[in-house]
Amino acid sequence: MTPRVPPRFVGLWHRRLLETPALRDTSTEVFWLQTHTLYVDLRVPVGRQAPCEGFAGRLMVDGDVLTWQRWLDLSPPSPWPDVGTMHGEGDLLEEFGVHQPYREVWQRVAHGGDSLALVWEGEGAGRGIWVMLGRYFMWALFRNEGQTPSREISYGLRGEGGGAWVILRSSEVALVGTSLADRFHISMPKTASGVSLLRDRGTGQRMRWRPQV
To answer: Residue 138 in contact with residue 40, Cβ under 8 Å?
Structure first.
C-alpha cells in the first residue's frame, strides 16, 4: 500500500450521493478532507434528525482500493473494515464498497494550497487529528478530561491572513459559528515540520500537535 496518498485523492470532498440496497441519500452533508497522510470525515444528517457520524485516521491506498483506518470514530466499531474501490478522475469520483454493498459519489471542491496533517497524543488525556488544506480545516478531538469525556469532529474555514478558525459544521451543534480561537490559544509553527501548540483557555491544558508526513 502507498504510504503517501496520491494527489488524485487529496482535497476537500463533498458527497453528492449515497446508494445502498435500502436507501438513496442526497441530503446528508458529508465533508471529507484528505491530506497526503491523514483525513477527517464528518456526516451531518439534514435537520439533525439522527446523530452525526464522523471518523478520522490514515488513508491507505493500493491502486484503486482505499482503506480508511479509523483511529477516532464517533460510532461504535464496525465488524467490517472501511474499504472501497474508487473509479473516475479529476474532481468526480465514484466509490463502491468492498465488504458492504454501497455506492458513493464524491465531488472535490478544493485541492489547491498547502496541506498539513497534525496528531495530538494526550497520554490518557485524549487524542486528536487536525488536517488543513489551504484555508479549510477539519479536526477530530476526543478528550477524556473531567467526568464527561468530549468527542468532537468539526469542519471550518480559516480567515484571510491566518485569522479566526470559524467552525461551519460540527458534530456538536453548539460549536457551529464559533471559532477555535474562542476556546484555544493557537500557536502555529513557521515551518510544516514544526510542532503546533494549543492551550485550552478554560482549563489551561496544553496540547502539542505533531505533523504527520
So the answer is: yes
Q: Of 107, 96, 122, which is closest to residue 19 (Cα–Cα)?
A: 96
Structural contact between residues 33 and 39, judged by C-beta atoms closer than 8 angstroms: yes
pTM here is 0.94
pLDDT in tens, 98-153: 999 999 999 999 998 889 999 999 878 899 999 999 999 999 999 987 667 899 99
The whole-number pLDDT of residue 190 equals 67
Residue 163 has pLDDT above 70, yes or no: no
Provide the CB-side half-sphere exposure for 26 (13 A, CA).
Answer: 0
CA 65 to chain centre: 20
Domains of the chain in start order, with CATH, are 7-110 (2.40.128.280), 115-211 (2.40.128)
154's grid cell: 468539526
State the virtual CA torsion across 115, 29, 56, 149 in degrees, nearest 10.
Answer: 120
Q: Which residues contact 47 (CB under 8 A, 6 or more apart)?
A: none
Write down the pLDDT at residue 195: 85
Give residues with Cβ within 8 angstroms of 76, minimum separation 6.
none
Mean pLDDT of 178-190: 90
Cβ-proximal residues to 180 (8 Å cutoff; 6+ apart), any chain: 156, 164, 165, 167, 186
Rounded Cα distance, 84 and 65, in Å:
6
Across the chain, what does the average pLDDT equal? 93
